[in-house]
Amino acid sequence: MVTNLAAYHFTEIQAPDALAADLSALALRNDLLGTVLVAEEGINLFLAGADNAITALLAWLRADARFADLRVKLSYSETQPFARLKVKVKPEIISFRRENASPLRERAPAVAPRDLARWIAQGHDDDGKRLVLLDTRNREEVGYGSFAGALCLPIDNFTDLPDALAPHRDAIADATVVSFCTGGIRCEKAALWMRADGMDNVLQLDGGILGYFEDVGGYGYDGRCFVFDDRVALDADLQPLCATMSEKESVQA
């Protein structure tokens, strides 16, 4: 059985090249495959291997005070979903290229998965405001599944989101908007940018879809969650669709 790790953390990293080199060496020593992205704003990890190897990597990271609060999502597969190890230093751990979208300054207000499930059941938030779920992923991902009735934008890249959202802003101004994505990176950046741009009614889904599946299951969600590896897409029990696709060259969360 292969243990699959998905984790990210926003924190200031003054020497991203050095951290990337250390992570690469540690992953190689432990026969871990997948993708590691390092930037001055934090890290984004998608790795798979033996359970003890994943445990060792997490222990090493959490021994560093910057990553003590690293949030982790684990799932399991029969086969290794990655073909190789890639460790890259990037300007951002997910490219957005917008001002006022850095979680280093502040986090966007979040809603916990169980609270969102309750809001979905009610059809509104706890203050009686109608609920709009905003999918911040691209159209390929949305094709595998999304929350029922979500506002899904016709985008191919995360950087396209602001322009694609513009025609909908007036229609969702009176709602509580919950942005969501696979693991939390994109919806957090999107929520921060939207709030800075005058949309103070926006929250992020804490932990993204995978965190929701882990805490709640599939309530209110139609289909599967696309992941950027050979598992293709995970169901609400975090089980893979099948290993029929080649490894994706880009990793998003």
Report the major sheet.
Answer: 5 strands, mixed
Output the helix-strand order: EHEEHEEEHEHEEHEHEHEEE
Name the CATH superfamily assignment of the largest domain: Rhodanese-like domain
Give the helix/strand class.
alpha/beta
Mean pLDDT: 94
Radius of gyration: 18 Å
Q: Share of helix among residues?
A: 25-40%
C-alpha end-to-end distance = 23 Å
What is the highest CATH level, the class of the largest domain?
Alpha Beta
| Morphology | globular
Major β-sheet strand ordering: 4-1-3-2-5
CATH architecture type of the largest domain: 3-Layer(aba) Sandwich
CATH topology of the largest domain: Oxidized Rhodanese, domain 1
Beta-strand portion reads: 25-35%
Note the main attributes of this structure.
single chain, 253 residues, alpha/beta, Alpha-Beta Plaits, Oxidized Rhodanese, domain 1, 2 domains, five-stranded mixed beta sheet, 25% strand, globular, disordered C terminus
